[in-house]
Design goal:
The protein is mostly helical and 155 residues long. It contains 6 helices and no strands.
């Protein structure tokens, strides 16, 4: 009896990861496509109940996955049918590569600019502190005048 129960639990639990993998791959493919109903969301996230694009595509994706097609193959078929605009992320070829590289280059360039500005400010402050105050003849005259006025004020 114990062996039968263990075998039954094993047979129930064994296919679970495969079912999860199929669901996640369905979600991955749906997330890879942008809905064309002007909602700006992916096919998986489209919140229109009767969406003329997302609802049929979800059925087509499920059918294609059950036929054994892979994510890349399905996305490629939609790209040939609708163009690159249907993909939720730009491809990593040609001019689209700039969309992937530009943000990182902007961050690096911004970091370099901030570093250079802070370095320049710190050097400017160090040179200002190192210079001795300049004493001129005019300053001595003003000092004497201040002493006289203060002595008159105290009296």
């Amino acid at each position: 009896m114990k062996t039968v129960l263990t075998l039954l639990v094993f047979l129930i639990v064994l296919p679970m990861p495969y079912a999860w993998a199929e669901l996640s791959s369905t979600q991955e493919v749906e997330e890879g496509l942008t809905c064309q109903c002007s909602c700006g969301l992916t096919v998986h996230s489209c919140n229109h109940l009767q969406c003329s694009f997302a609802v049929p595509r979800k059925q087509e994706i499920a059918k294609a996955l059950s036929e054994g097609k892979g994510k890349e193959e399905i996305l490629a078929s939609y790209m040939t049918q609708y163009g690159e605009k249907v993909l939720s992320a730009p491809t990593t070829t040609g001019f689209n590569l700039a969309a992937w590289i530009t943000p990182f280059l902007a961050l690096i360039l911004g970091g370099v600019v901030v570093s250079l500005i802070t370095l320049r400010w710190s050097r400017r402050r160090a040179t200002q502190e190192a210079q001795p105050p300049v004493v001129t003849e005019v300053a001595d005259e003003y000092r004497e005048r201040l002493r006289k006025e203060l002595s008159q004020f105290r009296d």
